[in-house]
Amino acid sequence: MVSVGTIIWLSSELMFFAALFASYFTIRAQSPDLWEAKTELLNVPFSTVNTIILVLSSVTCQLGVFAAERGQVGRTGSVLKVAGWGLREWFVLTYIMGAVFIGGQALEYAELVHEGLTIPSDAYGTMFYLTTGFHGLHVTGGLVAFIFVLGRTFLARKFTHEQAVSAIVVSYYWHFVDVVWIALFATIYLVK
Q: How far apart are CA 54 and CA 177, in angstroms?
């Protein structure tokens, strides 16, 4: 039931992001010269690296899910032996990668504000910060979810099927956030 509920909730989130995309393209169609000028401010190589980090975090998240499905909460052997990692190690690595992504986004915002691109500066600034900012809030929500799942693994006496389901549900959300970012990245950074 939790998985089905999460999928239904993610469908509503998809509609939310669809509305943001529709707004972005509508305003862009009304101001093509503004978009052409403002997209030059974007640091595409930096954002590409940041995107790769987020996409790779989906891989580490899924490896954590595989470990949870095997019932392996913690690592077997040395921390350096990645093949023996359990749910905790993979989810901690995913958390770190997600936090690096948010830090990169904050750094990008600081550079763009320094260049004069702010929410009230123009329509491009408004749409850029709305779309990427709401996505950043969703990533932050995912980071909080990882903390809850990790906390449950330490508090529980025994790793149960319910805890594995929690890890799976968090992975659904994380993969969703990653796929939305890929679409946002392509729309904002690559389509000129």
A: 9
